[in-house]
Write a structure and sequence with these properties.
CATH architecture of the largest domain: 2-Layer Sandwich
Radius of gyration: 48 Å
CATH superfamily of the largest domain: Reverse transcriptase/Diguanylate cyclase domain
Distance between the termini: 148 Å
Largest sheet: 5 strands, antiparallel
Order of helices and strands: HHHHHEEEEEHHHEHHEEHEEEHE
Number of helices: 12
Number of domains: 3
CATH topology of the largest domain: Alpha-Beta Plaits
Number of strands: 12
Helix content: 55-70%
Structural class: alpha+beta
CATH class of the largest domain: Alpha Beta
Length: 419
Amino acid sequence: MNRLMYGLMLLPLLPLLVASRHRLAVVSSAGLAWVLFLGGLFIFSGSPHFTLLLVQIPFLLFVTGIAAYFSRKHSSSGRDDIEEELLGFEVLKARHADLKGAIARGEKEENRSFQIYGVSKALAESLSWTDMAPRLTAGIQKVFGAYDFLLYAIDQSGQWTPLYRRGNWIKEPPLSGAVPPYGGFMHPPQTRELVPIQVVPIYNSGPDERVINGVLFLKIDAKDIVEQELLEAGQEFGEQIGMALNKALLFAQMETHSRVDGLTGVLRRQAFMDRLENELKRAGVFQTPFCVMMLDIDHFKRVNDDHGHAAGDAVLQRLGQILKESFYETDVVGRYGGEEFVALMPHAQLDGVQRKAENLRKRIEQERIACGFESLSVTVSIGLSHFPEHGRSMDELIAAADKAMYQAKATGRNRVVTA
């Protein structure tokens, strides 16, 4: 019985022992202590120890209060720990999002670099401007998502040479003056275009510095563009294709020289015949007319014999200039051979071409051509043919115009004859 009594006297310590564990344990231990204590009072009622147990009540209340205090403190500390853990989770979540974004940007930049490298490699493998142009177009569409662009080469004197044009442009080039060294954007009303224009300088790296040898203008019409990303792509693109641009310019110059007669500045015979063949196909499909003009300088051999071949070259050069000035941009002028020239006039009716030929004949007759310290004049005989009236093939049309031209020579020269 005495042992039970001593155990009941130690019950107030039970809540205190578990106060540092968990709030639920404190409540449970306090309840258990009170149940056992009240049960002890019932057992020892009428016993000499009953009074001693009654004395324990205030002490049990006091200890229970202390245990409850520590329990609340422990609960508050637990909530703080939970909040701290939640805060740490949010920080980790934000760091994970940043890392995920950095990885995505890295993959995007790596993909862009591979695309630009692929474009540069494809351009380096091209053997002509005909091969290079579609590859350049595909590369620009992949890297920038742009379908309309202008490409210019810039020589050491600052002269701009157009190399390639795709799409409709209000003004060419959109930028006049110095090119921004790292590129940039022009927004309306800086440009007359309706969408932003990205300026991409193209560099040719030298031993000491980078030199801008070209510029690319791009129409950026996407609504979700990120300008900084496009600027970075432009810088990398401009650095990679600098050598390719030099190659493109060389190809363009070679192609121009192969198509254009160096002395007169008009097309060579084969280049003219290619244009005539294309026009013949188009006219056959759309049932539209066109005219062919053959022109020969009268007594040209006499010019060479009397004044020398330098004078003959001067006459041919000046006649080429007059022909280029006398025809529309849609017309095609070529050197057929020696002192013979040929012209193609799409959509032209015969009566209008006859008046044009007569005016041309008169202008050449009145022209004084400087040859050293003297000047001389020449006349021309002109023959005309019309599609489809005088032929439906190149050979027929050329033969008809040539025959008319020799008829003009046979009937006195310096005149226009229609087939």
